[in-house]
Amino acid sequence: MAYNLKQINVLDLRASTGVGVALPFNTSAVFQTVYTTQEQLKYNIINYLLTNNRERIFNPNFGANIRQQVFEQITSETADTLDLKIRSGIAQYFPNIAITQLTFGGDPNQNQLTIQFSYTITNTGQSDNITISLT
Predict the structure, then answer these.
(1) What is the pLDDT of residues 23-39, one digit of tens each?
(2) Whether this model's pTM surpasses 0.85
(3) Is the CB of residue 62 less than 8 Å from the CB of residue 47?
(4) Domains of the chain (ranges plus CATH)?
């Protein structure tokens, strides 16, 4: 009989060791420490989605460049373009992520774009959701 063992990241073995910082920076100490790689991966994906191209020094192609779509009318064509851009960027920068659901919504009259993003971490099997609203 085969056993499917749960894989644990080495950084998660010490519960008291910080792995990164949380977003947004709004705590009294500015930076809130994150202690698990799953949570830090979620914040890294949020950072990727909210970054435009040419905003990151030494890596000008990093970012989903979705803020420019806020002023575009959300049609099936723009949703397909965003879908392709996000999926290809996630595959490039986060190869251990499998996107399970990616949906777009919003109100074109209010210049609002909402992205609902569900994913699974392939090596651990953990799942999570992200919802981003841009206005």
Answers:
(1) 877 767 778 888 888 89
(2) no
(3) no
(4) 10-134 (3.10.450.40)
